[in-house]
Write a structure and sequence with these properties.
Elements (H helix, E strand, L loop, with lengths): L1 H17 L3 E8 L5 E11 L2 E8 L2 E4 L1 E6 L2 E8 L2 E10 L2 E8 L4 E8 L6 E8 L5 E11 L2 E7 L5 E3 L1 E6 L2 E8 L2 E10 L2 E7 L5 E7 L1
Antiparallel strand pairs: 1-2, 1-9, 2-3, 3-4, 5-6, 6-7, 7-8, 8-9, 10-11, 10-18, 11-12, 12-13, 14-15, 15-16, 16-17, 17-18
């Protein structure tokens, strides 16, 4: 009986840990509003979680990594201080806060690198006057490549061209009513956010959610 309980506990822990393994595109928001980008790489060795947090400034090792339910916690040492990070896992999003011994705190979010973008997305694009246009984008994998279609409010559609994906960033071109548009978006907090550029260099915000 004792062996069974320990065995089930080990399986449960391994299953929970596997949900966060891999690389995560990470954004750290400092108290002054400045955003820093990094890559969180979580690995498992001998049943224990570990990993690194890497940025242009270098790489640090994660210490005391714990996964309790959907909460991930770890400590990093940068400069002369220690920073504690706590994040909650929801689908392909890690979201939480960090705090340092010097009292500094801030927000931290991470999106799984290479998160699955296939599926239908509800798109809101604002024109230069701020009027919202509600569209849809359908993305799917085909022969290892991402392809997609823009669906207009009247039901007509246009294929997405030069569709590219790099990490958590997505870009494509599309022609609507003989006008060419370029779109660049990035996965932020589970949604796609960015801008589109239209005729004459006009640029406006665009967002997409599932």
């Amino acid at each position: 009986m004792k062996f069974t309980i320990l065995f089930l506990a080990a399986i449960s822990m391994a299953w929970g840990n596997s949900a966060v393994l891999g690389k995560w595109d990470t954004r750290v928001t400092m108290p002054n509003g400045k955003e820093l980008r990094a890559v969180l790489d979580l690995v498992s060795k001998d049943g224990k979680l570990g990993g690194t947090l890497s940025s242009e400034a270098g790489s640090v090792i994660l210490e005391d990594v714990q996964m309790n339910g959907n909460e991930l916690a770890f400590t990093i040492y940068a400069g002369a201080g220690a920073y504690k990070i706590k994040m909650n896992l929801e689908n392909d999003l890690l979201k939480g806060n960090f705090s340092g011994v010097d009292g500094v705190t801030g927000a931290i979010t991470a999106t799984r690198a290479g998160a699955n973008l296939a599926g239908d997305w509800k798109v809101v694009a604002k024109d230069p006057d701020g009027v919202e246009q509600h569209l849809r984008v359908s993305l799917r994998e085909q022969a290892g490549a991402l392809i997609g279609t823009l669906i207009l409010p009247d039901g007509t559609s246009a294929p997405l061209r030069e569709l590219k994906r790099e990490g958590n960033e997505l870009s494509f071109k599309v022609t609507v009513e003989a006008a060419d548009y370029s779109v660049k978006m990035a996965m932020v907090d589970g949604a796609l956010k960015g801008t589109y550029t239209g005729p004459g260099g006009m640029t406006a915000p665009v967002t997409a959610s599932r």
